[in-house]
Amino acid sequence: MKKETKRTTIYDLATRIGASPSSVSSVLNGTWKKRRISAKLAERVLQLAKEEGYAVNAQASLLRRERSNIVGMIVPKYDNRYFGDIAEKFESMARLRGLIPVVTCTQRSPDLEFDAARELVSYQAECLISTGATDPDRISDFCHAAGVQSINMDLPGSKTASVISDNYAGAFELTQLILDRCERELGWVGPLRFVGGRLTDHNTAARLQGFLAAQRERGIAVPDDYVMAEGYSAKKAEQLLANFQPTGATGLFVNSTISLEGVVSWQSGLPDGGAMIRYGCFDWDPFGSFLPGNVGMVEQDVETMLANVFNLVGKTESTTELIKVPCKLRVFGP
């Protein structure tokens, strides 16, 4: 039978160094300067802790503190540049503010979102940021009952503050760009097709409104079956376009980089490689500028959105404020 190795404790470290357990504890939890413990002793404690493989019991430590400084975030996907950028910048910006960031992916599942929220609250997160959540109000209600601040990002809720992109204005601008390029380069004036997203999703609905308004302004009527919004997946986008074989010029508004994968796959299978197609995408990926027929993309301003989120973190007053952040239109080609 293998002998179990005894874990090093604060008391073991204190005995080895010849200091009090409270002094060692202060060094390990970062409060030694407030207690006027010497830098030399702190260095010795940290070096010995490293040599002994000592790890702070985070949960026990949190119970002894008034604040955890933990701020949690749930995101729906990691394999998407937009959400990946949010997660990466969130961690960096949180650390700059002396906060401990924790991020978890929930795969657009309402149950996984709620389970993640409960777990983060159980670890004494002081604020929970729901990014792209399918049911943000359920999470907000739970957080409110637990005495934890909640903020929505990307998709809004009605129970707490939300920071989102100005989806309508971004879609309006992108639609104008696609129409302009279709007319100038192909001699074609629309209507465009809308591909990707879910009509029950706030962002898709707002983008669709901007898409329709930009065409209505030019006297272009969009047939109902030109709105092809049955999900974000690449496979779904390709399936929706499978029976569409354009015989002339045409234009598409693509509602995410995920859907764009399906559009490009469909386009590559056309007899002429889709030479008479022009499209734009709401979402940004630098590789998009190299795709044939892509005239532009809408980049959501992640850094400004997160700056607004962090301005709300720690505020005690309840608010249902909706903050809309302008997008950036990236134009490709002449």
Automatic annotation (TrEMBL):
The keyword DNA-binding applies. Keywords: DNA-binding, Repressor, Transcription, Transcription regulation. It comes from the Bacteria. GO terms for molecular function: DNA-binding transcription factor activity; transcription cis-regulatory region binding. CDD domains: HTH_XRE. Residues 8-65 form the HTH lacI-type domain. This is LacI family transcriptional regulator. The lineage of its organism: Bacteria, Pseudomonadati, Pseudomonadota, Gammaproteobacteria, Vibrionales.
